[in-house]
Amino acid sequence: MTTALTRNPWAGFALRRCWRLLVSLAVLVTASFAMIHLIPGDPVRAALGTTASPALVAAEKHSLGLDQPLLSQYVTFLGNLFRGRLGESISTQLPVSQIISSRLPATLEIAVPAFVLILLTAIPLGMSAAVLTKDGRRRRGELAFTTATGLLGAVPEYLLAVGLVAAFAVALPIFPAASQGGPSSYVLPVLSLTVIPAAVLSRIVRVETLRVLGEDYMRTARAKRLPARLHYLRHALPNLLTSSLTLGGMLFTSLLAGTVLIENVFAWPGLGATIVTAITQKDYPLVQGIVLVYGSASLLITFAVDMALGLADPQSTIRGS
Amino acid sequence: MPHLPSPSVPSSSLLHRLRRTLRTPLGVTALTACIVLAVVAVLGPMLFGAEADRVDTNAIDQGSSMAHLLGTDDLGRDIAARVVVATRLSLELTLQATVIGVVGGLLLGVAPTVLGRRLGRLVTATVGVLVAFPGLLFVLFLATVFGVGSTGAMFAIGVATVPSMARLVQNMTASIAGSDYVAAARILGVGRFRLVSRHLLPNIAEPSALFATQAAAGILLSFSGLSFLGLGVQAPQYDWGRLLNEQLNGIYVNPVAALAPGVAVVLTGLTFGLVGEVFAKASGRRAPLSRQQPPSEQSAMAPAPLPDESAEGALVQVHDLRVGFPDGREAVRGVSLTIGHGEALGLVGESGSGKSLTALALADLVPHPGRVQAAEITFDGHDLRSDPHLGTTLAMVFQDPMASLNPALRVGRQLSEVAEVHLGSTRAQARARAVDRLSAVRIPSAARRARQRPHEYSGGMRQRAVIAMGLMGEPKLVIADEPTTALDVTVQQQVLDLLAEVRTETGAALLLISHDLAVVAQVCERVLVMYAGRIVEDLPVAELVGGAAHPYTRALVGAIPTMTTDPNTELATIPGRPPEPGDADQGCSFAPRCALATDRCRSTRPELVGFDTGRRVACWHPVGAVLPLDVRPVDAEAAS
Question: CB of B426 within 8 Å of any CB in chain A?
């Protein structure tokens, strides 16, 4: 299948996407390396405080490798990165990789259910809204839908989180307001991550559904007089899914970023809460490590979505650059 | 009011449009919200500054009261006053960050045009990589570099906006840079910077302003988020995010105080959004919400009385078929036709003559909000108005085979589902039948092809697959709507042969819709000529050349060049253009373009009447036809 690799549009597409992923990862790694050097003044002095002795500052600089020439620092950094070493936290002296591996699960435990919930609510919601309001039917319903989802889209996630806490933890004490605990403690954080992206995505799905329903092949499907279930699920869904997910792909990476704020609202012991503390404490190695994790995670998600779409809709491999 | 004295942008018309948009309810709301926001930002700190900073140890962490509308914080300061005072700083920081983002984005976006090709590509590629990262991650990275605090946060958020703005500007400049007037300016030797300032920037000003207002809303939210995280504004300064941060711990004591700054953020964000909407509307970039008028209920249009005689044993019997739209347009205006069992009938006319809608009405596929009315419409003995279930007795073949197959489904699946749904076949039976039907329309290695998706088929193969789809059941009528128009000339013949073959093998009737008389003449036995939503002539194919009675049919035939046409003469055309469906409907629709038209033609519409055997024509002055006495033209001017 060697000739197929060069001829097959899908293989070419996969190669281009892999190349883009590699370049982006290289940029991310270099940027996170350069971060500490971009900070104006003396970052180690700033991290340890003005009262720290010059000897302590020099020792910390040495342990961070900042006394080496820039190029050799970069090489050492890359070498360590490949071996999974991300240095030590300045404030706790613990290995950064250890902190990350102890905090990452808590983040994933709210991000993954939120991701699934967003898809499970936004797609049926957007499709039903489209089917109910197609060809200018139910003008008022259409207005209500676009207004409600539009308003929700204007609310930042962490404000919704505060609102949910006020409503369901303070006014009606159903769920705990903060910190990780039993299953009920997951409800509000996951909801806070879900509602707004779901509203935004359902708008996209609705518009895409309306576009698909107007296509010629849907008229062919109508001519076949299929039951509504087959008509919408088999003929419309796959077509609107590919285009909706292309547009909604950005939502998933922003979901990851959204965990930063949500974790701070709920005092959730995840990576997001950790990076904020690390930034305020000027714990640069820890910030660097978490930026690498978040950055590569979002690049991988984008890559995975692209590849999945390429498989599901081979035509997109030709359209996409 | 500031104005752009640029020659390439009709700035006055934008201002005019803006002014007009500001008078709409949307504009009034946006303007009011802006004024309120500006007044609060300017006067707030002056009026409430003292109260917001007054520490009152006797009133710590109080709830809402008359003295303190939203309660007090942990130093006894009035929260309502602090929310009002915070408006100024929140807006200032937002605007500053927006300026950084927009200016940086413009510089980086225009850079590829000004810099050489290599450097330009590098800039484009860098921007491409940067937009892939989530905004908040970029902000956190920059906040680490710029340091915690309001200035650092402002730069971080501003710089984080640059890539998306730069991407937008790059896309716009790329399209403008390729335009003719920029090429002309280049040829004239206009310098790069002059090109940017005179030609590029003025042309992207409008969309850039729109983006800036949308970006400002996003920046406001990011800034409040950053302050909320404790990375933005630091005490003793405070913006809304900072207030939210301070009040969150007291949410059990005073939830209103925790929500108030959030509400302020959302309302201000919505205001920016409204301003963006106004801009977008003024520059006409937003698709209007209402595309069509709301559909009215099925209006009770009185159907014409049923004809006395209805052809016995006809497969399709249609009388006075009308397809109308809610805005009053009528695209099909009373069509009556019959199709016999196994008959091949052609339906010809110019585009817009209503021939496709007539066919769609027969198949019950007229798109919403079109309304179908008919005095009679029966198919194979049952009334389609009461029972539109056609099952597999009617097959449709559409014009564009590239678009009429579902790109996401395998071709075999699209065929087999017909058998599963309508014939009760099992999945395996249906699949076998699909393969069988595909080979029946001569698709090579049908079993393998059935597993492929439409994009792996050529145009001709797709059309054959669509025909095969119609053959899954046992069709009594095949409606083919311009089945060869989108195809290659060599493939056209194959598809026509296939349709003819299907007819002989299944005994199905064929309704072939085309604007191509040659195609119809080849396949059909009888032709209906449509003009402006009505049938104007009904004649056997053999009579088409030389024997047509209606001047329009004769003109259509005359417009086809043949091998004997002198290549040096100009191609014959029909002068004028067909009427629009909404035009006044008086007299003969063809009269304005007809050389034989008289006053009678312009005032009274001729009905479709029969003459000879099986021929009908709607004309006051038919060519060479011997009409029954009662409709023979008796006007004085006709005699002369």
Answer: no
